[in-house]
Design brief:
By secondary structure, the protein is α+β, with helices and mostly antiparallel strands. 32% of the residues lie in helices and 32% in strands. It contains six helices and 15 strands. The strands form three sheets. Strands 4-3-5-6-7-8-9-10 form an eight-stranded mixed sheet, with helices on both faces. The longest helix has 21 residues. The protein is globular.
Length: 249
């Protein structure tokens, strides 16, 4: 397993270096939606990750936000978000990351890595072992009183998911100390694993956004409630927390 974790960490660092070098430079826009932007750097970064991982493990497959590579029925599938927080990146907001996970037999996440290249923060985890941040073991917060918590609410990208999440934000903002909407699901989960946030909630999120972070949270002592969304292909609802608070969603 260590070889997979080392490969994921090396790929994340290489991808982060590419993103950092191009940050606040003029970006080539690939596509634009009402609440999202796709950049050429997203594609370039995933291609770099794919090359590094699949050159080392040619029988594996890659399932990423910017497309798929290899036989997706492979027992080993890398789940990749090359740039989680693209809108932040485009607007020069230094809050984005690289997220890489390894899924086995389309079921179990066994390796997860999230790298913030601006803060040089590397979260790593593998199934059954404690999550780490820059080599130091981490743990979720021990706050149990909802009124004392800081919670991240993701608003997602479509009108439908925004309409679903916004009432939840309105409800939670009166029950907790602070709600945050920071624009990177993977970093939200890494922050829950680190005890910076007490929970992260979103509906209509993609697997590549939350695969690595979910493992980090569970390995750090938290809980993750992940459910497929009906009538939404490859979309999930997620509620990740320290396991001590009662969200009562």
């Amino acid at each position: 397993m260590k070889q997979y974790l080392d490969a994921a960490e090396n790929a994340a660092r290489a991808a982060g270096k590419l993103l950092r070098e191009n940050f606040r430079q003029r970006q080539r826009v690939k596509s634009v939606a009402a609440h999202d932007i796709k950049l050429e750097i997203d594609v370039q970064t995933q291609e770099l990750i794919g090359k590094l991982l699949l050159d080392e493990f040619p029988a594996h497959a890659l399932y990423g936000e910017e497309g798929i590579v290899g036989d997706q029925s492979s027992d080993h599938q890398w789940v990749v978000d090359p740039l989680d927080g693209t809108v932040n990146y485009f607007y020069g907001i230094p809050h984005f990351c690289v997220s890489i996970a390894l899924r086995v037999r389309q079921e179990e996440i066994v390796v997860g890595v999230i790298y913030d290249p601006i803060r040089d923060e590397m979260w790593i985890g593998q199934k059954g072992q404690v999550s780490k941040l820059n080599g130091t073991p981490i743990h979720v917060s021990d706050r149990a009183d909802l009124a004392e918590t800081v919670i991240s609410i993701g608003l997602a990208k479509t009108g439908e998911t925004i309409n679903t999440n916004f009432p939840m934000l309105q409800q939670m903002i009166h029950r907790v100390r602070k709600c945050r909407v920071l624009g990177s699901a993977a970093l939200d989960l890494a922050y829950v694993a680190s005890g910076r946030f007490d929970a992260y909630i979103e509906t209509g999120i993609s697997l590549w956004d939350i695969a690595a972070g979910s493992l980090l949270v569970e390995n750090a002592g938290g809980t993750v409630d992940l459910r497929p969304r009906e009538n939404m292909k490859d979309k999930y609802s997620i509620a990740a927390s320290n396991g001590r608070i009662d969200l009562k969603l």
